[in-house]
């Protein structure tokens, strides 16, 4: 499995960005994979942002992004999206997408539970 993340950039506080993560070399249907976004700011550990579970279901979000970020997916395109609105300077980080087929919902927020990762895309929010 390979993941390609894109869509990062520089935006002013209050602005919006949409990240994309396209999967390739999937062994199974993309709908059978959990898709997630994590982020890592300089000097900080990687933290969970959002996840969309296998075969649909209610997405899961970190408290820090609830109401501002939205995860969605287009299984026909093997692509997951992260729509980020009302961005804040503290959202500045490298954003990574991750996927796995074996996760249960309680593990969505655990970075070490994911087998496959994209290369990351930089999001910078200026104040």
Structural features, described:
This protein is an all-beta fold. Helix content is 0%, strand content 47%. The chain is built from no helices and eleven strands. The strands form two sheets. Strands 2, 4, 5, 6, 9, 10 and 11 form a seven-stranded mixed β-sheet that branches. A four-stranded antiparallel β-sheet has the order 1-3-8-7, with no helix packed on it. It is globular and about 40 Å long. The mean pLDDT is 96.
Summarize this structure briefly.
It contains no helices and 11 strands. It is mainly beta and about 130 residues long.
Q: Helices and strands, in N-to-C order?
A: EEEEEEEEEEE
Largest sheet features:
7 strands, mixed
Q: What's the end-to-end separation, in Å?
A: 37 Å
* Number of helical stretches of at least 4 residues: 0
User: What would you call the structural class?
Assistant: mainly beta
Q: What kind of assembly state do the chains in view correspond to?
A: single chain
Uncertain segments of ≥5 residues (pLDDT<50)? Answer: none
Quote the average pLDDT: 96
């Amino acid at each position: 499995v390979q993941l390609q993340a894109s869509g990062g950039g520089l935006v002013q506080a209050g602005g919006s960005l949409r990240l994309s993560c396209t999967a390739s070399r999937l062994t199974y249907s993309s709908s059978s994979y959990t898709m997630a976004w994590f982020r890592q700011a300089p000097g900080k550990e990687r933290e969970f942002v959002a996840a969309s579970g296998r075969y649909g279901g209610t997405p899961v979000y970190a408290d820090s992004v609830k109401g501002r970020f939205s995860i969605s997916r287009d299984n026909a395109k093997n692509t997951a999206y992260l729509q980020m609105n009302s961005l804040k300077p503290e959202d500045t980080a490298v954003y990574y997408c991750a996927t796995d087929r074996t996760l249960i919902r309680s593990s969505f927020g655990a970075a070490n539970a994911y087998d496959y990762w994209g290369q990351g895309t930089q999001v910078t929010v200026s104040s």
